[in-house]
Protein: Microsomal glutathione S-transferase 1
Organism: Himantopus himantopus
Amino acid sequence: RSGEMAKLTQLIDNEVFRAYATYATIVLLKMMLMSLITAYFRITRKAFVNPEDTASFGKGESAKKYLRTDPDVERVRRGHLNDLENIVPFLGIGLLYALSGPELSTALLHFRIFVGARIVHTFAYLIPLPQPGRGLSWAVAYTVTISMAYKVLKTALYL
């Protein structure tokens, strides 16, 4: 019936939704891993932004030298911020796309390309790989999200 909410069991049985849930989980875990990598670089480079984080390295003036920026930490942080700017839209648009009834093969193509491009982007940021590798991987993932948004709007055009 029109106007009824989908039951959870209907979503779990929907192969496209299960594919979305799988790939969304992968990119969310990757994004969470970036937090751990940032913490690792902060600790190994002894570069902190909060005074309380330097307590194990001394007190007073001796600890203040650890309140600093480090190029490696900043590189990881920029990669993490880029994840936030790109994965969050993917999660919302991807969900709407998954619920819009696309073919499974097309949906899998979208999800796999997005996830692959974001993983390549992370390696390109962390290693770092020469440009245009990072830029291309960003553009590929961004284009996938735009493609899904277009298909959602085309399917359910209530503008």
Observations:
- The mean pLDDT is 91.
- The domain at 15-39+69-157 is CATH 1.20.120.550 (Four Helix Bundle (Hemerythrin (Met), subunit A)).
- The chain is about 75% helix and 0% strand.
